[in-house]
Specification:
By secondary structure, the chain is of the alpha+beta class. 31% of the residues lie in helices and 14% in strands.
């Protein structure tokens, strides 16, 4: 069953699993079984991609079954993410294959498609009662060296995977973020029918941090 902490309240009703998906930093020490991991990453394979290329590749490390890989991924994170991510049961790196397989040309949509597949697996994880937290705070060069990622492939995201834990386990400052109310922009601020908005209608300075 999906976690119901900080469920989004939106202006239109959508699938509950989408309102329940969030990006926690507090994780339980409960291990994620191999079967659940495989189910979640199988969901990634269902995502759309340009020419059906499926340019996503994932490197995962589990504290219980592949601790060396886990430590390599953790070592590639910036320090402010290491502080809390070290307690997650699983870490994973999303990697983009930068050229199409069928003709060798550059795939300008590769990173977009990695995003699609990762978003899809995040929804599957939420449905199963787990959560992921996607991070931009990592060193692509460190991960490339740690895992011998070849040319033509680029790390684009690192994320945690596990069962949510109590916010009280987090360092001071992060626990408040864990329980702070969540909000999203209303449709009027990002959906424009017929034309781009006039400057008076733009609200890009209002994005919540």
């Amino acid at each position: 069953m999906a976690d119901t902490t900080n469920v989004l309240k939106l202006e239109h009703e959508i699938m509950p699993v989408l309102t329940q998906r969030r990006s926690p930093r507090a994780y339980s020490d409960k291990a994620v079984s191999a079967g659940v991991v495989e189910q979640i990453f199988t969901a990634a394979s269902s995502a759309a991609s340009c020419f059906g290329e499926q340019p996503w590749r994932y490197i995962m490390g589990s504290q219980s079954s592949s601790p060396e890989a886990f430590e390599k991924i953790l070592g590639g994170l910036l320090e402010f993410n290491q502080v809390w991510a070290k307690k997650a049961p699983v870490l994973a790196v999303g990697v983009a294959k930068l050229n199409f397989s069928h003709d060798g040309n550059a795939n300008g949509w590769a990173k977009y498609d990695v995003g699609q597949s990762t978003a899809t697996l995040a929804v599957e994880a939420t449905e199963l009662g787990l959560q992921i937290h996607q991070m931009a705070g990592f060193s692509p060069d460190a991960l490339r060296a740690a895992f011998s990622i070849p040319e033509g492939f680029e790390p684009v995201v690192v994320f945690t995977l596990g069962y949510p834990g109590p916010a009280s386990d987090l360092p001071a400052g992060l626990s408040e973020k864990e329980t702070a109310p969540r909000a999203r922009k209303p449709l009027a601020e990002f959906l424009f029918e017929g034309a781009w908005p006039t400057p008076a209608g733009e609200r890009y300075d209002q994005a919540p941090v």
